[in-house]
Structures are given as structure tokens and as C-alpha cells.
Write a sequence for this structure.
């Protein structure tokens, strides 16, 4: 309960940046509530006084008074709608931006744990539920509370006897609402989980459509989707029936309750305790009580649903982000680019099985250093460690003489360009892709980078050259073209350290040789690290470290390693066909 | 009126909201003025007199009248 109250309080904190608009909206809501109370009172005066006394002056005055109230009511209701919509829109943008920023700054270990679909649901559905609650449900809650207070004050002023009797029904209604809210919360939690699963399912299948087609699994995958959709449908049905039963109980209770009050009010008129005008007013007010109570029930359900969503969002927001500009770290103003692994071991936190064990290697500027090994040997983890997507479980990694853990992440990554084995090309023009992450634009350097990556001729052959659209809505690229574009993008950043993780696997040997020839010419003062299991790629390296069973077993030049007739020689023989 | 509406809807969102806020405060000020005036304005409650004319029985403001138990 205490936790819930804390969450409820946090909703008001979200409204703090909009305190001026929220206050005005609250004022407008309060005035609307007061105005809505006037009509039955006017009716009461007309019935009890103006009509019996044939007071035309009073009748005219009250009608004009009613018109003025109606005009003010319309204005302030409109203002409430406008301000609430404004807050809704800006809060939605604000929260989405904050959440997205946090997601981008989460450590890679969290991204590896969470499925993309699950994250998508948190970014979209869960944020929507929170925004709806803060920007819509809370104003409704305030309005409903004000309406109920105003109604009871006026009713007490008219006849406190009758009002106190009416109040007796409230606890029963609250108990019923609470029971159903718990049920709705449970359904919401399950729904969000299953929606996340479906998003992840779509994401996985869309990304692997070739595999599905090649295995003729279209029908099977559709069947799996139907099963998942059916489980969501069952929850929707459960939600619907629970909602219908809840509404039926609400309506029945309120109808029985107000009918009893109406009977008692009539009894009070017949026994001469109140006038006909007063009973008319009270009956209208009792009719009005119905709506706030129904609204209150909806508010309660909506809040219950939002508690699930905010818990899911906070699971992400509460994760410690990567320390981009941690005050304890220092900024690298200049580096030579030397990378040194000193007895580095790594295993994931939830397992003791080492991915890398006792790795020591050095990559010097002006050299191409390769890390070779079979698939699954832990080569790509080296890339993750250099970029600090992961931190070593044991040992240290240095850039020049600085321990990576002491260096500001932002500046460290500014000195490194990577081309990973999963090349990501963004939808947009070729130019936008090449300039991704660059603050200063230099057309000449961009073209040179494209030439060095052996992609310039292809680009110039496209209808719009560098302004040709690629990705969604644009032309499709082959695997080799994507890799060359990614290499050009990395070269254009012109940084001190370049890491190529199986970056030329889709290029034919001739093009690959040309790319490396260009690289050697271009990167005379830069550190180039290549991670590969391919012999044609490894031939370009000045020094090779061989990883076998998560450890470095050999190191040396290509030729010397072959002469040793050790692990690398076996590796060479196994992969010689690739040449 | 059409021009005013058009001018407001074409404003940038934050500026538009500011205009709406100022308009709300202005109307609220008018409302306060109306309430003060109504508070001071006494309505004459009358009933048919014995001579066929109207007889003033009370002078009361509209708020007192609405909340009156009489």
C-alpha cells in the first residue's frame, strides 16, 4: 500500500514541470464543477418561489443568470480540455525522450538480457498508459473528487438527514471497486507480458525471414503466432467479462441505492420536512452522483493498470546507466592509440564459465593486429571489452597508459570506430549513413573514405550518387556493399583506433585485398584491430594473436605462425579452402 | 473573430498555450468582477399584494437566494 502511494505521488511529480498549466486546468475544473451545481438550485428557486408567487422579474433574472453561467462553464470546460491535451502531448514527448535516452545508455549487458520486443512495449504501450494516467486520469480524479464534495456540501445544506443516509452507501461501493481493481491489475500484468512476447516474436521472425522461407516454415510460424494471439485474446475476453460484471454490479448498486434515497426523499416531502423544489434539486444531484462514482471506478481501474506499467518502466529507469561523463573518470584529449590487454578474463555475472581467460595482447599504432580463432572462441568479446560494452571480470585494459575504467566513456568511444559482423545500415541517404556520428562535414574526406572502402564507384553509379536513398524506401544493398559502406563510414570518422570484426567476410578476395591495401596506406599512425577466422583477412595483419579455447595460445606474424606448425597451422589447414 | 481564431491556431505550440493561459486569466478576472457585482446586486423578491400590485418581501443577492433554506 505504501509502495502504491509512493507511485501515486510520483505521478504528481511528473506534472511539476507543467505546474502553471496544471494549476489553471485545476482552477477551470473547479469552476466547471461549481457551475454545474447551479442549475438544480435555480430550478429549486423557480419551483418553490418564482412560480407560486408569479414573480416574472425573478424568473427573467434567473434565466439570464443561467445563461451567463452556461457561457462561463462552456469556456472553462474548453480550457480544461485544451490544457489537458497540451500536457498530455508534451508529457508524452518528454517521457518517451527520457526513456529512450535511458535505453540508449543502458549497459550492453542489460540489452543482451532484454528482448527487443519487450523493450518496444515498454517504450510505447507502458509509456502511453503512464501518460494517460497522469494527463487524463488524474484530472478526472480531481474533477470527480471535487464534484462529489460539492454535491455532498449542497445536499447537506438542503437536507443533512437525507445526505447522511446517502453517504452510507459509499463504503460498499469502494470495497467492490477495490476487489475488481486487483483483478484488472492482474490481467493487465499478464497482458503486457504477452504483448511483449508477441513484439519479440515479430521482431525475431521479420529479421530471419530468409531462414523461415528456406525451411518452409511459414505455416508453422503462423501457427505459433496464432497461439500467442489466442492467449492475448483469452486475456482480452477475461478483461471484457470482468469489466461487464463490474459495470453490472456498479449500475445495480447505484440504481438500488439512489432509488432508496429517492423514496426517502419523497417521504421527507410528504411529511413536510422539505419542499418540492428541494426534492427536485436533490433528485437531480443524486442523478449527477451516479456519473462521478462511475468515473471514480474507471479511475481506480486505470490507476491499477498504470501501476503495472510504471513498475515495468522503472525496472529500466532504475538500472544504473553507463557512466558517460562520470566525474571520477577523466577526459582523453589526445591518444596515440595503443591498446593493451593485461591478463584479462571475462565471464558473465550469472555464470562462472569464462568467455576469455588470462588474455594479454598489445595492438600498436601503425600496425594491423589480428585476433584469430574459430567461431565461439571469444573473439568478438574482445571488441565489446575495448568499447567497454563489457568490463573485464579480472585484469585490466589500457589505452596508451590509461586504464579504460578510468577514462570517460564518451571520449573513449570518440577515438574508436568499429565495423561489426552485423552491419547496420540506417534508412536514409548514402551520405547520411557515411556522416553518421560526425559533427563536422567534409565532402572531400567522405569521398576519399568511400574510395578507400572501394564503394565510391558503386555510389557514383547510383542515380543520385551520394544522395541515393538506401534501406527502407530506398535501394537494396548486397552484403558486400553494406560491409564496404560500413567500412567507409568507419574510415570517414578518421579516429585513432579502428576495429574490424569479420568486417570483410562478404567481400571477394580481390576487393578485400584492395581494401586492406588502402587501409595500410591510410592508417599509418592508427591502430587497426581485425577480428576474424578467415585466412585471406588474417594475411593482411602485421601480428596475429590466436585464441583457442578462450585463451591466447600463439602469437606472431602470419608466416612465423605457419612455420610453428601449432594451433594456427591447424586452423590454416582447416580454413585454407576459403582462399 | 475568424482571424483571431486563425492567428491562435497557427501559433507555435508553447506560444499558443501561453495565449490560452492569458485568455483564461482574463476571463477569470471578468468572472470575479461579475461575482462581486452579483454579490452587491440585490434582487427584489416580490409576491402579489392585496391591491393587485406587487409587494416587496425581501432584498437578497443571488447567491444567498440559491443557498437559502426558506
Amino acid at each position: 500500500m505504501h509502495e502504491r502511494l509512493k507511485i501515486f505521488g510520483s505521478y504528481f511529480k511528473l506534472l511539476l514541470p507543467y505546474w502553471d498549466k496544471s494549476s489553471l486546468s485545476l482552477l477551470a475544473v473547479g469552476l466547471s464543477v461549481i457551475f454545474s451545481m447551479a442549475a438544480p438550485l435555480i430550478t429549486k428557486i423557480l419551483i418553490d418561489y418564482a412560480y407560486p408567487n408569479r414573480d416574472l422579474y425573478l424568473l427573467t433574472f434567473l434565466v439570464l443568470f443561467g445563461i451567463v453561467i452556461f457561457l462561463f462553464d462552456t469556456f472553462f470546460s474548453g480550457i480544461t480540455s485544451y490544457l489537458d491535451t497540451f500536457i498530455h502531448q508534451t508529457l508524452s514527448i518528454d517521457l518517451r525522450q527520457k526513456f529512450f535516452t535511458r535505453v540508449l545508455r543502458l549497459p550492453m549487458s542489460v540489452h543482451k538480457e532484454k528482448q527487443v520486443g519487450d523493450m518496444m512495449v515498454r517504450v510505447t504501450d507502458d509509456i502511453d498508459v503512464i501518460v494517460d494516467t497522469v494527463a487524463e486520469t488524474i484530472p478526472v480524479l480531481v474533477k470527480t473528487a471535487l464534484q462529489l464534495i460539492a454535491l455532498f456540501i449542497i445536499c447537506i445544506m438542503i437536507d443533512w438527514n437525507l445526505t447522511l443516509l446517502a453517504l452510507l452507501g459509499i463504503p460498499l461501493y469502494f470495497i467492490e471497486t477495490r476487489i475488481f481493481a486487483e483483478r484488472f491489475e492482474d490481467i493487465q500484468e499478464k497482458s503486457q507480458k504477452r504483448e511483449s512476447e508477441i513484439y519479440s516474436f515479430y521482431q525475431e521472425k521479420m529479421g530471419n525471414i530468409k531462414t523461415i522461407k528456406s525451411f518452409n516454415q511459414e505455416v508453422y510460424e503462423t501457427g505459433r503466432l496464432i497461439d500467442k494471439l489466442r492467449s492475448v485474446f483469452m486475456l482480452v475476453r477475461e478483461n471484457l467479462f470482468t469489466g461487464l460484471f463490474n459495470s453490472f454490479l456498479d449500475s445495480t448498486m447505484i440504481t438500488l441505492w439512489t432509488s432508496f434515497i429517492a423514496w426517502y426523499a419523497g417521504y421527507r416531502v410528504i411529511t413536510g420536512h422539505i419542499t418540492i423544489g428541494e426534492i427536485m434539486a436533490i433528485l437531480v444531484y443524486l442523478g449527477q452522483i451516479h456519473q462521478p462514482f462511475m468515473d471514480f471506478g474507471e479511475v481506480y481501474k486505470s490507476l491499477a493498470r498504470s501501476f503495472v506499467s510504471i513498475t515495468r518502466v522503472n525496472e529500466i529507469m532504475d538500472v544504473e546507466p553507463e557512466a558517460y561523463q562520470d566525474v571520477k573518470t577523466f577526459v582523453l584529449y589526445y591518444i596515440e592509440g595503443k591498446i593493451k590487454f593485461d591478463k584479462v578474463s571475462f565471464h558473465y555475472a550469472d555464470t562462472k564459465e569464462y568467455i576469455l581467460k588470462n588474455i594479454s595482447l598489445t595492438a600498436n599504432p601503425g600496425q594491423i593486429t589480428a585476433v584469430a580463432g574459430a567461431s565461439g572462441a571469444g573473439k568478438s568479446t574482445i571488441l565489446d571489452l575495448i568499447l567497454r560494452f563489457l568490463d573485464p571480470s579480472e585484469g585490466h585494459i589500457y589505452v596508451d597508459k590509461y586504464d579504460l575504467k578510468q577514462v570517460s566513456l564518451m571520449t573513449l568511444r570518440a577515438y574508436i570506430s568499429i565495423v561489426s559482423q552485423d552491419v547496420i545500415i540506417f534508412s536514409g541517404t548514402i551520405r547520411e549513413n557515411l556522416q553518421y556520428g560526425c559533427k563536422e562535414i567534409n565532402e572531400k574526406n567522405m569521398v576519399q573514405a568511400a574510395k578507400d572502402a572501394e564503394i565510391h564507384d558503386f555510389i557514383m553509379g547510383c542515380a543520385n550518387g551520394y544522395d541515393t536513398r538506401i534501406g527502407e524506401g530506398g535501394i537494396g544493398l548486397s552484403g558486400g556493399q553494406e560491409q564496404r559502406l560500413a567500412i567507409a563510414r568507419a574510415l570517414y570518422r578518421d579516429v585513432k583506433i579502428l576495429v574490424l570484426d569479420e568486417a570483410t567476410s562478404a567481400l571477394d578476395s580481390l576487393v578485400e585485398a584492395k581494401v586492406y591495401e588502402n587501409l595500410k596506406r591510410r592508417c599509418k599512425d592508427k591502430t587497426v584491430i581485425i577480428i576474424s577466422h578467415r585466412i585471406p583477412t588474417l594475411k593482411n595483419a602485421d601480428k596475429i594473436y590466436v585464441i583457442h579455447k578462450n585463451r591466447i595460445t600463439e602469437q606472431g606474424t602470419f608466416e612465423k605462425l605457419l612455420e610453428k606448425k601449432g594451433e594456427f597451422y591447424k586452423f590454416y589447414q582447416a580454413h585454407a579452402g576459403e582462399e | 473573430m475568424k482571424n483571431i481564431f486563425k492567428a491562435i491556431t497557427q501559433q507555435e505550440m508553447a506560444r499558443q498555450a501561453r495565449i490560452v493561459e492569458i485568455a483564461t486569466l482574463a476571463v477569470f478576472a471578468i468572472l470575479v468582477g461579475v461575482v462581486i457585482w452579483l454579490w452587491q446586486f440585490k434582487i427584489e423578491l416580490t409576491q402579489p399584494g392585496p391591491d393587485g400590485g406587487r409587494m416587496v418581501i425581501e432584498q437578497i443577492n443571488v447567491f444567498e437566494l440559491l443557498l437559502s433554506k426558506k
